[in-house]
Structures are given as structure tokens and as C-alpha cells.
Amino acid sequence: MQRQTRKQQTPTVSKIKKKKKLKKQTTASYILSRLLIIVSVLVLATLLFAAGLMIGFGVIGGGNARSIFSPAVWDHFLLFFQQ
User: Fold this and answer.
1) Which of 44, 49, 40 is nearest to 69 (CA)?
2) Residue 69 is assigned to a structural domain of this protein
3) Which three-class secondary structure state does DSSP give residue 11?
4) For the chain, how big is the Rg over CA atoms in Å?
5) Which of the residues in the chain have pLDDT under 70?
6) How far is it, in rounded angstroms, from Cα 11 to Cα 44?
7) 5 within domain boundaries
8) Contacts within 8 Å (CB) and 24+ apart, 67-74
9) Residue 3 domain-assigned?
10) Number of domains composing the chain
11) What digits encode the pLDDT tens for the residues 5-26?
12) Burial 7-46 (b: 16+ CB within 10 A, else e)
């Protein structure tokens, strides 16, 4: 009887199940890591947008930087652009 090399050996059922389980875990971790990247980029973009608004309104515009988040300021902006 000839000795089989590793490539010629047929995998057992338990090895196949382990590979499928590992592949599912790998796929889930891949999806989770991609979602984490997307969420972190969106949070970073939101923070940078808010910082830009504060710098633009506070430093360049000469107003109070925190008042950019006031609803009255946004009402004024919207009325200005609607006219």
C-alpha cells in the first residue's frame, strides 16, 4: 500500500466542519471590521464638520463659536438662502 501525501489525503468530516466554521468566523470578522471602519470614518467626518463650522463661525465670522449649534442661527441661515 502506498503512503498518501498530505495533498492526496481526503479530509475527514470533522476537518471540513472546522474549516466551514473558521470560514464563517472569518467572514463575520471581516464584515465587522469593515463596518467598524465605516462607522469610525462617519464619526470622524461629523466631528471635523462640527469643528469646521465652529472655526468658520467663531473665528472667521466673528461670532460665538458655540452658538453655531443654536436653532436660531440655522433659522437665520435658511432664511438668508431662501431669499
Assistant:
1) 49
2) yes
3) coil
4) 29
5) 1-11, 13, 17-18, 20-25
6) 47
7) no
8) none
9) no
10) 1
11) 555 566 676 777 667 666 666 7
12) eeeeeeeeeeeeeeeeeeeeeeeeeeeeeeeeeeeeeeee
Q: Which three cell numbers stand for residue 39?
A: 462607522
| Residues with Cβ within 8 Å of residue 59, at least 6 apart in sequence | 65
Which residues lie closer than 8 Å to 28 by C-beta, 6 or more apart?
A: none
Closest CA to 54 of 45, 46, 63: 63
Computed from CA positions of residues 7, 8, 10, 14, in that sequence, does the dihedral angle turn out positive or negative? Answer: negative
The separation between CA 67 and the C-alpha centre of its own chain, rounded to angstroms, equals 29
- Cα–Cα nearest to 70, from 58, 60, 82: 58
Residue 1 domain flag = no
Cell numbers describing residue 81:
438662502
Domain interval for residue 40: 13-82
